[in-house]
Amino acid sequence: MARATGIIIIIILLCGSLCAQELSGPLSGTYGPGVYTIVGDLSVAAGDSATLLAGTTFLFQGNNNFSLDIDGYFTALGTEADSIYFLPDELASTWTGIDFNGNSDHGCRLEYCYISGSTASGVDCFGSSPVIDHCSIVDNHANFGGGLYATSGAEPVITNCLVSGNSTNVCGAGIWASSANPMIDNCIFDGNNAGNSAGGIYCYSADAVITNCIITNNTSYAGAGGIFCRNVTPYIYNCIITDNSTQTVGGGINMNNTSPTVERCLIARNSAGISGGGIEAYISTPTIINCTIADNYAAEMGGGIESFDSTPIIRNTIISGNEGYGGLYFFNSQNADVSYCDFYDNEAGNLAGTIPPGLGQMVMTNANGDSCDLYYNMMEDPLFYSFSGDSAYYLTEDSPCIDAGDPASPLDPDNTIADIGMFYYPQESTSPVAVTLNPYGAPIQIPAAGGSFDFNIALDNTSGSSVTCDAWIMVTLPGGSQYGPLLGPVSVTLNAGMLIDRDRTQVVPAVSDPGEYIYQAFVGNYPDDIWDTDSFSFEKLDGLYGSVINSWQNFGEEFTSAADIYASKATLHRAQLMAYPNPFNPETRLVFTLPEAEQVSLTVFDVSGRVVTTLYDGLYQAGTHEATFGASHLPSGIYFTKLSAGDFTQTQKLMLVK
After folding, report:
1. CB-based contacts of 179: which residues, under 8 Å, 6+ apart?
2. Residue 332: predicted pLDDT
3. Does residue 595 sit in the same domain as residue 651?
4. Where is the domain boundary, 499, 521, 556?
């Protein structure tokens, strides 16, 4: 693919002088398809618009450092089969990239564009928020932000992009984000090189959201081969961070005075010339959840992680096979919270430095019968499937990490207790009772004013003996959080081989957000011991309300058992809280329901435990109540809302994505 792209570019450069139109100055209207030789600076004025069609090429002439400055509306919409190219017209020519300025329209978009050869960042975002999708940003150079540069409150959305071969004299070879909040999803940062720090991604006072990305083979001199975070609270989720290197600290990630959340990430085979082969945490409070940190190298302290003057929270994480002084090295980090982790085969000890009291002392066994310390940390071989290829660091069926995570963590997708590490092991169901949930009239669309749908639920005892179990139904909201139970939990006894099914109706209220919902039935021992589950989706439409339906209700045929498994309406036994939308920007609605009058407190706080706002505080009657949490003045990141009602307390994570 790279060779084919290179051939296309050579052809474009060779024919450019023969068939190109010359272009300079203000742009307005539609351009292309075709080749244009750029003989002066280009601009799109405020209030004006310009569009490039698929198959258009801009060749910037000479060593004049021409640029494309955008203060208005600009779109360059290529296709998968017919990209748009921004290139120097000769290998010796120079240009200075595409600049989206603060006055540019928020609808600006680059799609299927190839941007290369700039000497001042491929794409600059100054207080702007363009969408950059399916673009290749390669072989650009700058002092800061070789591939992309974002600052002054910029909030670019960067998705499905390749950022490769870029370089900087200073920081952020892939992207530099300073006082900006980029959202980066499903991108590849590969082979970028920084003269100072952050070969891949640099975040300074920038609450980036980085999800589903591959960050690999990036290099830096003075820290952070992969990602550098400073004075920020970024969210890094489901990323592969491998084979990055630095001559100093933080081969994979360098955290400096920051509070990032790193969740479901693989951090492997990174190297650091001093410390923190996988992660360097310096005066930071990171939260590291369900990660695999393996086979990293540090010349000195912390082959996997160095915690220096930091207070990390590390949970459900594998730290294995790292080289350096200790898999996890502590310096002045006595308040570190490390639990439900697996440490194995780390050079010079799994734990090193000034180890917090009780950590690593095997004094009991966990639920699987394996030796662990007071915090349920093990020192067992995780039994990876392999160390390379598509299945690298996956668990095998005999791994002690299966079901050994924190029972309070969200269940794995197979509805079992959380495994330790990034990749969970999918377990086959051994449930004696199967639950089946079938909608009538699919696909289901609920009007904006609320409505209802009909469904059938069946319980089948496939075992050879009588079984007593709980059954209940939850709904997953468009933002990803669960609400319920809408039905149950109730107890039912099924004789051997018995199958029972009933038709029911579910009401969906107007107050529910538009979007896709997952309606899910469970069987087992409520709430954490789940034997089997089944689900279907439905859609809630957006629009104006008509006659409004106000509450979730469930009714229909009863199961005839001594327990009356389903009443004619779901009975609320305790207070319930939900937030939607979640993630949100800039506000979310917090709705709670009380079974009876209670003294209520509803508070929002940040990841450091500081109270952001108190929304409710007083005596409230039974029923449904709603508050709006506005966060336009707050940075992107993780927040929590806590509902206290009588002796009931519920906390829910909120994600602000700007």
Report:
1. 151, 152, 153, 204, 205, 206
2. 96
3. yes
4. 556
472 within 8 A of 415, measured Cβ to Cβ: no
Query: What are the residues whose beta carbons fall under 8 Å from the beta carbon of 377, sequence distance 6 or more?
Result: 338, 339, 340, 341, 342, 343, 359, 360
Domains identified in the chain, total number: 2
Percentage of residues in the chain having pLDDT higher than 70: 91
Pairing of strands 318-320, 342-344: parallel
Cα three-residue angle 333-336-342, rounded to 5 degrees: 120
Residue 443 lies in a domain: yes
pLDDT for 637 beyond 90: no
User: What's residue 569's pLDDT?
Assistant: 30
Query: Do 515 and 616 lie in a common domain?
Result: no
Q: Which of these, 168, 182, 86, lies nearest to 119 by C-alpha position?
A: 168
Give the CB-side neighbour count of residue 353, counting CA atoms within 13 A.
Answer: 24
Q: What is the phi/psi pair of residue 615, to 5°?
A: -95, -35
In whole angstroms, how far apart are CA 627 and each of 594, 617, 641? 14, 12, 11
With H, G, I as helix, E, B as strand and everything else as coil, classify residue 19.
Answer: helix
114 belongs to a structural domain: no
Tokens 């006659």 — which residue?
547
pLDDT above 50 for 27: yes
Residue that is written with structure tokens 């494309």 in the block: 68
The parent domain of residue 501 ranges over: 433-556
